[in-house]
Write a structure and sequence with these properties.
This protein is an alpha+beta fold. It has one domain: DD-peptidase/beta-lactamase superfamily (Beta-lactamase). Helices cover 42% and strands 12% of the residues. The strands form 2 sheets. A 5-stranded antiparallel sheet has the order 2-1-9-8-7. A 3-stranded antiparallel sheet has the order 3-5-4. A hairpin with a 3-residue loop joins strand 8 and strand 9. The mean pLDDT is 94. The structure holds glutamic acid. The site of glutamic acid (GLU) has 11 residues, from loops.
């Protein structure tokens, strides 16, 4: 299929909410983190940011929401930029085929998480990052603000608190990792950093802009510098493609065909290498934890625009 010109993108986005109405009322917002269950389930936003620096939006694209596991791509990118391949001695690169917070796999694989996008993997990445950043929370926030070119991005203390108070599974994962020697810092210090990362509030537009570095060989979206190398950007995109959408990555590859990362706040980011980054948000999740309207919107966008990595 031929690529549509960039001016077509706004037209596709404008038609989108109407085109996917049947994807609503099928799922539910995450409720295992109580603060996430309070969000209006009918919200829908989408933003596209092209490598030429143009932005396109639809619906609630400027509304802030909880990015949750989308933050795992930021922490992975920051960790890779500091320590390169060495990171992969502590965390694998295979899809897990189990739920994102599974304990059993970690037990029989001796404390090496399958990949950096399941919770255990992201907790190891957070631990590794603590070696390289002097003020973890502040440095992480500055990194994300810089990528989005928006200083008005903040941690949501109520989401942090809600997750902290209900984080028994993540605490169990961190303790397991520690028992296998795959966590260097104190469990509570690592979890504090991890929960803060997940509690970031951003809009679709912020995220589409921030993720542009993965569409342009690792180059910073707003500064004349690299966030990660070209090879590292390729590796991160591959991990998003194979592991970025929980144990539904096969469905995503089949229906959307782009590197994606989702979060239980209902956001999904997708990368079209060399062209653009996309973020869609809608809180109703399917059984595997991905936004159902979000997934449908990406499928529609790809079909209409003709963009795919395949
Ligand atoms: N903060 C969430 C957790 O650790 C992230 C889950 C997600 O978005 O996949 O359970």
């Amino acid at each position: 299929m031929e690529y549509k010109p960039v001016s077509e993108l706004q037209r596709i986005l404008a038609c989108l909410p109407e085109a996917i109405t049947d994807a609503f009322n099928q799922g539910q917002p995450a409720n295992y983190i109580p603060a996430l269950a309070e969000v209006d389930p009918k919200r829908f936003g989408m933003a596209v940011s092209t490598v030429d620096g143009e932005d396109f939006t639809a619906g609630d694209a400027r509304e802030m929401f909880s990015i949750q596991s989308i933050s795992k791509v930021f922490s992975l990118s920051l960790a890779i930029s500091h320590m390169g391949e060495e990171l992969f001695q502590r965390v694998g690169v295979e899809p897990s085929g189990t739920s994102f917070n599974s304990l059993s796999q970690l037990e029989y694989e001796n404390g090496i998480p399958r990949n950096p996008f399941i919770n255990a993997g992201a907790i190891v990445v957070a631990d590794a990052l603590l070696e390289y950043v002097s003020s973890p929370k502040q440095d992480f926030l500055s990194f994300v603000r810089g990528l989005s070119d928006n200083i008005d991005i903040h941690y949501d203390e109520s989401v942090f608190r809600s997750e902290f108070d209900n984080g028994q599974r993540n605490t169990a994962l961190a303790n397991y990792l520690k028992s296998f020697g795959n966590l260097k810092n104190h469990v509570s210090r690592v979890l504090d950093f991890y929960f803060y990362q997940c509690s970031l509030s951003m809009s679709c537009l912020d995220l589409a802009r921030a993720f542009r570095f993965l569409a342009q060989d690792g180059r910073h979206p707003f500064r004349n510098e690299s966030v990660v190398s070209r090879l590292q950007a390729r590796r991160i995109n591959s991990l998003m493609m194979t592991c970025g959408t929980y144990d539904e990555a096969g469905e995503f590859a089949f229906h959307v065909g782009l590197p994606c990362k989702s979060g239980v706040g209902g956001g999904i980011v997708a990368i079209i290498p060399g062209k653009m980054s996309i973020c869609v948000w809608s809180p109703e999740l399917g059984a595997k934890g991905n936004s159902l309207p979000g997934m449908r919107a990406l499928e529609y966008f790809v079909k209409q625009s003709g963009h795919s990595v395949f």
